[in-house]
C-alpha cells in the first residue's frame, strides 16, 4: 500500500504483469504456477513505470480499502501489508480496516543510524496508541563487509535496532547486514534464501520467519 | 514538511529548541546568534521526540499552509522545503501554495539502486505534470570507500542518478559517496564543510551549491 512508491512488483520481478477482473473481484498476480504467493500492488494498475500517483489522502484510502475488500485473495495463511514510512492516511486506514479481524501485529524495520531511529520511534508510538501489537523490530543495513579485505564497517552506526527494541520493550527480531549480492538479486525474481544459502542475510531472514511464524501459531 | 518524520531539528542539533509566538506569527528557530539560518519544523512543536503525528491529509495540509503563511520568516534569500518521499498531500499542497510566487524549482535526491530510481522517476513525473522546474538530480549514498583498504564498493550499484538525469533530460548535479565521518556529524550541529574540508562529500556539496545559486541569480 505504498501507493506513491510501489516497489513490490519490481522486487519480485513482476513488473510486466497485469491484474485482471473476475466475478469475485480483482485477481491478484501470482509469482509462480503453484500460486503460493499472491501479490496486489498499485504498480500493476499503472500503464508506465514512471507514472506518478498524485493523490491526496481520501483517494489513497479508497484504494487501500479496495485492496483489502475487492481482491479475490482466496484462502490465505498470511497477509503481509507493506506500508510506506510515516503515520498518516495509509497507516490509519489499514489500522481501521483491520480492527474487525484478528491481526498478528506489526513488524517494524529500521536502519541503525540515530536519524532513522528518530522516525521509527514515532512508528512504535503509533502502534502503541492504536493498539497494534508489535511483533518486533528488524535492523536492516547494519554493517558492511568489504569484499576486498573482509573488514566490517558499521557505515550507518550499529545496534540501533537493539536499543530501540529495549526502549520500546518489544523483541529485537534480527540484524541484517548490507550485502551487495542480495541487492543484485532484487528485480530478478530470485530469492537470496535459494541463491545464497550460506550468506548471513539468509540465515537472519530464516531466523526471523521462524520466530514470527512460531509466535503466530 | 515531513510531518510524520521530521529529521531537520535532529540533523541541525536543535532538538531542545522551541518555537515561540510573536505579534507577526511564529518565530522560527535560528541555528546561531547571527540568525543566518531560520528553521521551522513540526519537530519543535512535539513535546517528546517519540511523539507521533497521526494525521490524515487535510490536517497535514493545514499545518503546511501555516508553515508558509504564519511563520515570521523575515527577509529570506532562499527558502528550502524538505519533503518526505511520495507525490501526495504534502507535495500537492506545497505545489499549490507556491504557484503564486516564483520558485526556482525542485532538487530531486535519489540513491543509486534500481528500486530507488523506480520511485524517483515518479517524482520527476510529478514535477513535470505540475509544472515545477527541476533544478537537477543528486545521487546520494553512491559507493563506499573501505576505511581499511581504500577499496571502493558500489554497495547500492552506481550511476543511477546520472542515467535518470539523462532520461528525464535534467542536470545531474552531483554524486555523493557514503562517508561514515559525515554521518557521525549528524546531530552535532557541526557541518562537514567546516569539519572535513578535504572530503569528497564537501567538495561535491560545494559544487552543487555553486551550480544552483549561480543558476538562480
UniProtKB/TrEMBL annotation, chains A, B:
Subcellular location(s): the record lists: Cytoplasm, Cytoskeleton, Cilium axoneme; Cytoplasm, Cytoskeleton, Microtubule organizing center, Centrosome, Centriole
Q: Which domain of life is it from?
A: Eukaryota
What are the TM regions of this chain, as residue ranges? none
The protein's matches in PROSITE patterns, at most eight in alphabetical order, are given as: MRP
Q: Which Pfam families match?
A: ParA
A Gene Ontology biological process noted in the UniProt record is: iron-sulfur cluster assembly
Sorted UniProt keywords: 4Fe-4S, ATP-binding, Cytoplasm, Iron, Iron-sulfur, Metal-binding, Nucleotide-binding
A GO cellular component annotation here is: centriole
> GO molecular-function annotation terms?
4 iron, 4 sulfur cluster binding; ATP binding; ATP-dependent FeS chaperone activity; metal ion binding
Gene3D superfamilies noted in UniProt? P-loop containing nucleotide triphosphate hydrolases
Chief place of localization: cytoplasm
The family database entries (InterPro entries) matched by this protein are listed as: Mrp-like_CS, Mrp/NBP35_ATP-bd, P-loop_NTPase, YlxH/NBP35
What's this chain's function? Answer: Component of the cytosolic iron-sulfur (Fe/S) protein assembly (CIA) machinery. Required for maturation of extramitochondrial Fe-S proteins. The NUBP1-NUBP2 heterotetramer forms a Fe-S scaffold complex, mediating the de novo assembly of an Fe-S cluster and its transfer to target apoproteins. Negatively regulates cilium formation and structure.
Q: How does it assemble?
A: Heterotetramer of 2 NUBP1 and 2 NUBP2 chains. Interacts with KIFC1. Interacts with NUBP1.
Its recorded name reads Cytosolic Fe-S cluster assembly factor NUBP2 homolog
Amino acid at each position: 500500500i505504498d501507493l506513491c512508491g510501489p516497489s513490490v512488483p519490481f522486487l519480485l520481478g513482476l513488473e510486466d504483469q497485469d491484474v485482471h477482473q473476475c466475478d469475485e473481484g480483482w485477481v491478484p498476480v501470482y509469482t509462480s504456477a503453484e500460486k503460493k504467493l499472491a501479490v496486489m500492488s498499485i504498480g500493476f494498475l499503472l500503464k508506465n513505470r514512471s507514472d506518478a500517483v498524485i493523490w491526496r489522502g481520501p483517494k489513497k484510502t479508497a484504494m487501500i480499502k479496495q485492496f483489502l475488500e475487492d481482491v479475490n485473495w482466496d484462502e490465505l495463511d498470511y497477509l503481509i501489508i507493506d506500508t510506506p514510512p510515516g503515520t498518516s492516511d495509509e497507516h490509519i486506514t489499514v489500522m481501521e480496516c483491520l480492527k474487525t479481524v484478528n491481526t498478528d501485529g506489526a513488524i517494524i524495520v529500521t536502519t541503525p543510524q540515530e536519524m532513522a531511529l528518530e522516525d521509527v520511534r514515532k512508528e512504535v508510538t503509533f502502534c502503541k496508541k492504536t493498539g497494534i501489537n508489535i511483533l518486533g523490530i528488524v535492523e536492516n543495513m547494519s554493517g558492511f563487509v568489504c569484499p576486498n579485505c573482509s573488514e566490517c564497517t558499521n557505515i550507518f552506526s550499529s545496534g540501533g535496532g537493539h536499543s530501540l527494541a529495549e526502549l520500546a520493550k518489544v523483541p529485537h527480531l534480527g540484524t541484517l547486514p548490507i550485502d551487495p549480492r542480495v541487492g543484485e538479486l532484487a528485480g530478478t525474481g530470485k530469492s537470496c534464501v535459494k541463491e545464497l544459502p550460506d550468506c548471513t542475510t539468509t540465515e537472519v531472514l530464516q531466523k526471523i520467519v521462524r520466530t514470527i511464524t512460531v509466535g503466530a501459531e
